[in-house]
Amino acid sequence: MCETRDLTEPVAPNPAFTRHLAAATQEAKDTMRYHEPTQAGAPEKLSGRLEELVDSFREDIVGLSQHLHAHPETAFEEYGSVDKIVEILNKHGLEAEKGVYGVETAFESHLENGEGPTIAILSEYDALPNIGHACGHNVMAATGLGAYLGLAALVKEDPEAFHGTVKYIGTPAEEGSSGKEVMARGGAFKPEDMDAAIMLHSYGYDLADQIWLGRRVLTATFTGVAAHASSQPFMGRNALDAAALAYQGLAVLRQQVPPSDRIHAIITEGGTRQSIITERAEMKFYVRSKYPDTLKDLSRRVEKVLKGAAMMTDCAVELDWDYSPATLGVRTNDQLTSRWVEAQRKRGREPLPLGVVSEIIAASTDFGNVSYRVPGIHPLIKVGAEDEALHTRAFAKAAGTPAGDKAAVDGAYGLAQVALDFMTDAKLREAVKEEFEAAGGTVDVEHYFDD
Ligand SMILES: [Zn+2]
Ligand SMILES: [Zn+2]
Questions:
Q1: How far apart are the two ends of the chain, measured CA to CA in Å?
Q2: Which ligand places an atom closest to the C-alpha of 392?
Q3: Please, what is the average pLDDT of the chain?
Q4: What is the DSSP secondary-structure string of 221-254?
Q5: Among 132, 141, 192, 449, which residue carries the largest CB count within 10 Å?
Q6: How much distance in Å is there from the Cα of 81 to the middle of ligand 2?
Q7: Ligand nearest to the Cα of 367, by number
Q8: Which CATH number applies to 214-321?
Q9: Intrachain domains 32-211+329-447 and 214-321 with the same fold
């Protein structure tokens, strides 16, 4: 049967596959449970008091989430957001330094209580252009703040609660700008400065862990020779042809890469007039893969396609990799994750294990680069409905609802509890470190793709 339509509107994508994915997720959700933790964590009495204290900051936590939601600021422009967070810290007698690690909208505050381990709690607060807090960073910022306030209050009333340092770090420009890697290159997230780093992300499910893909950006510029497209095309060398062949070449490559690899390409410049053989064409790419070494391999293969396209068309090609720093996938620390799960269960949440939500549904985050420097976690907390995806207007709306407020407080307690467990349980710290070392230890992220 031949389908006919008037071609004035695109065809809406068939949601069949999404429905199958949702059904598989539902089935896994009903049957899979995160394993029981192997370490004890903090003493029960201390944990109970911490939970009360975090809850007592509900007004500040929800207030911040709502304030950021109403005043979204995009990457590197989050001045008002930082001012608001620091204002709340100051109100509770906590100092913070703005503009740290060479990034104006980053900040850091320290809670020092003698000798001991150091853990960092991270807050993201950047929004997306036009659609506001569609990634729920307003909620996430509030969880970091609430966790830090709770721990500060705990140690204030009981100086023996834990010893060591809790750092609260504001990390701007996650969206498309790898803000944490920019900060890292300015001196942040050094293994000698912290033993672990924790944060969470907003989502449509409570997930203990999820796959995040590493990501690199690339610009390719093809240069040809301009000529009259009608009278002397044989004297031209067509840069748009090179771009078209590169685009097709990548389409062919896609079938022979691991299923979690992704290549997204756009042509940003393709000529100036139909009567001129295109002299200059420009393309931009995202290249994503699950592991650092597979991302390196995919990068090489993409490069070969682009060079091949230049070769076929007698054009020159210039490749500009990582104009914004590359990010790696998240290396989750299971020992810390199991403490997160325990804390969330106290709040009536059941964070689901890896594999419940298909790994096909995977994006990227700059926290990956932190997690290859120090042990870390980046669990997901339910803010929106299960079928509301990140970066949609629906999710932006959800991030400002009572469900978002509840996630902010539950998440704040969760992060605070993981930090307290880490500070008070030496065996847990040992297990965290052991797991991190067994996974390959600290990686030189900045220079990983140099060769
Ligand atoms: Zn996002
Ligand atoms: Zn996000």
A1: 53
A2: 1
A3: 97
A4: EEE-B--BTTT-GGG-B-HHHHHHHHHHHHHHHG
A5: 141
A6: 16
A7: 2
A8: 3.30.70.360
A9: no
* Alpha helices, H only, 158-291: 179-185, 239-253
Q: 293 CA to middle of ligand 1, Å? A: 24
What is the fold of 32-211+329-447?
Answer: Aminopeptidase (3.40.630)
Rounded to whole angstroms, how far apart are CA atoms 417 and 340? 7
What mean pLDDT comes out for the span 357-379?
96
Q: What is the mean pLDDT of the segment spanning 187-193? A: 98
390 CA distance to ligand 1 middle (Å): 7
Task: Sketch the domain layout of the chain as residue ranges.
Answer: 32-211+329-447, 214-321
Cα-to-centroid distance, 153 and ligand 2 (Å): 29
CA dihedral 61, 74, 188, 91 (to 10 degrees): -30
Distance, CA 377 to ligand 2 centroid (Å)? 14
The per-residue pLDDT for range 316-331, each reduced to its tens digit, is: 999 999 999 999 999 9
Dihedral, 236, 237, 243, 249 alpha carbons, nearest 10: 130
